[in-house]
Amino acid sequence: MNRDLSMPVQRAQWLRLGLFATALLACVLVPFALWGDALDRAAPAWLAAQDARLWLAALGIALLMADVVLPLPSSVIGVLLCWTLGPVWGAVTVAVGGWLAFALGYVLGHVLPEARLRRWVGAALWDRARGLARQRALWWIVAARPLPVLAELSALLAGVWRVPPLAAFAHAAWSSCVVGALYGASAWLGLGEPHPAAMLPAMLALPTAMWLVHRILLRRLLADAGSAVPREHDQGGVAP
Questions:
Q1: Is 168 within 8 Å of 130 (Cβ atoms)?
Q2: Which residues contact 38 (CB under 8 A, 6 or more apart)?
Q3: Tens digits of per-residue pLDDT, 53-110?
Q4: 147, 206, 201, 205: which is closest to 171 by C-alpha?
Q5: Tens digit of pLDDT for each residue in 121-178?
Q6: What is the largest CA-CA distance in the chain?
Q7: Which of 58, 101, 134, 225 is found 20 to 30 A from 239 (Cα to Cα)?
């Protein structure tokens, strides 16, 4: 009986969670439909108008950050930065801009009233989704950074679900550095943009490598903690 009664409640919670995700997605996609073409033409012109390299880098970072709320062509911006500033400094600029864009999206998501959203969606499902997001932050934050729309959506969700800032920003920084390096390498090779055949394996390998590092460090820390406890007991049991 109770199980049958809970099914409509679960369906309603999933529906409200889907509506919330759709609303966030609409916040990202609607500006693309309204101003996407105009900004696609304007952003390269803004960058081309800059003579000083420092101002060009600052404008590029600002445009990459604004991509969180505006339909700016981040791939075009990244390519132009690497071609104009050079592969190294262009890659650094793209990495910094991508990381700051994630930070801005995280802050915007954090501003949303989580307590009210939790009550509206349903505490059980909200807590489950938030717990999974925090446990799997390594995977979905890293994998989403080079992808249009998903990059902005992942940053907003990380803030909404209060993913620990240290973990969220660290993983976003790693991913942003890889994206910047791929753009820099493409400019160095004379390509117009990073080839998907190179970007996809890199973005799959990064979370795998970080997971292995986490496992190794965690096992070492646990082993050190376990060996420290017997030593403390032994020292405490020895009479002076």
A1: no
A2: none
A3: 788 888 889 989 988 888 777 888 888 888 888 889 999 999 999 999 999 999 998 9
A4: 206
A5: 888 888 888 888 777 666 778 878 877 788 888 888 889 888 888 888 888 888 888 8
A6: 80
A7: 225
Predicted confidence at residue 76, as pLDDT, reads: 82
Predicted local confidence at residue 98, as pLDDT:
92
DSSP for the chain?
A: -HHHHHHHHHHHHHHHHHHHHHHHHHHHHHHHHHHHHHHHHHHHHHHHT--SHHHHHHHHHHHHHHTTTS---HHHHHHHHHHHH-HHHHHHHHHHHHHHHHHHHHHHHHHS-HHHHHHHH-HHHHHHHHHHHHHTHHHHHHHHTTSTTHHHHHHHHHHHTT--HHHHHHHHHHHHHHHHHHHHHHHHTT-SS--HHHHHHHHHHHHHHHHHHHHHHHHHHHHHHHHHHHHHHHHHHS--
Alpha-carbon distance of 45 to 191, in angstroms, equals 20
- Residue 59 CA to residue 47 CA, distance in Å, equals 7
Residue 81 exposed, middle or buried by CB count within 10 Å (0-12, 13-18, 19+): buried
Nearest to 87 by CA among 76, 79, 98: 79
